[in-house]
Amino acid sequence: MRKPMIAGNWKMNKTPSETAALIEELKKVENTHDADVVVCPMTVSLFAASKALEGSGIHLGAQNVHFEDKGAFTGEANCASYKELGVEYIILGHSERRQYFAETNETVNKKVLKVLEQGFKPIICVGEKLEEKQTGITNEVVCLQTKAALCGVSAEQMANVVIAYEPVWAIGTGMTATAQDANNTIHAIRSAVREMFGDVADTVRILYGGSMNDKNCAELMAQEEIDGGLIGGASLVAEKFEKVINF
User: Fold this and answer.
1) Residue 28 to residue 238: CA distance in whole angstroms
2) 39, 159, 177, 201: least surrounded by Cβ within 10 Å?
């Protein structure tokens, strides 16, 4: 059995004080499925989040990282800084990073290798655009992204890897894949992992991140292949996030 994971990607929302306040609310939430709960605030709010999370069972994640240890990379953050803040998970390759900040399969792979080398757990995002879905090449796209991201990763390191299927056309649009479609695509992603790492694929957690919320989480989480969710808007409201956590 793979342990469920519910991760909140807070994107560019919540100031440090708002982050701390939301975490205080989330610390009161009953976790009926004993899921791994992760919150991923903005970089500038990580210190406040780290302090607020002390003594709780909630894990801290970041939304991005640079693949170099240090240097002239204005505006970026490195692994060493995240270590000091107690970050455990790092989201990599989110479609918004690919779309707005020119991330490629190559740079995502460099980040995956650096994050694993430094002892973090990457949440690797893969997903197809609307035109790719309409053309019928969803599986080809997500499997290519998956294999490219995992190039050079060892079977042992896969124990720390989480993958999130996030159809680009469903992020922030209110549209979501049907539960069966999401399950089928995640099955294809797991098959791609199996081609690379064999039975290790059975232990890798694969989340769904296409507008999972308090209304549709139960149906999505009932699917055999879906191990959790990477939650956007619904994770910014304690009452809604609580419902997702307790799917």
Assistant:
1) 10
2) 159
The amino acid present at 112, given as its one-letter code, is V
Concatenated DSSP letters of 101-152: S---HHHHHHHHHHHHHTT-EEEEEE---HHHHHHT-HHHHHHHHHHHHTTT
Dihedrals φ, ψ of 124, to 5°? -90, 120
Q: Which fold has domain 5-245?
A: TIM Barrel (3.20.20)
Helix (H) or strand (E) segment spanning residue 87:
none
pTM over 0.90: yes
From 96, 103, 128, 166, the catalytic residue: 166
Angle between helices 179-197 and 138-149 (to 10 degrees): 40
Please give the torsion angle defined by the CA atoms of residues 74, 95, 214 and 239, in that order, rounded to the nearest 10 degrees: 0
CA distances in angstroms from 171 to 104, 123, 127, 198, 208, listed in the order given: 19, 16, 10, 31, 11
Q: What is the pLDDT of residues 4-59, one digit of tens each?
A: 999 999 999 999 999 999 999 999 999 999 999 999 999 999 999 999 999 999 99
Read off the tokens for 166: 């996030």
Q: Is 94 a catalytic residue?
A: yes
CB 23 within 8 A of CB 39: yes
Q: Active-site residue 224, yes or no?
A: no
Identify the active-site residue in 59, 94, 96, 103. 94
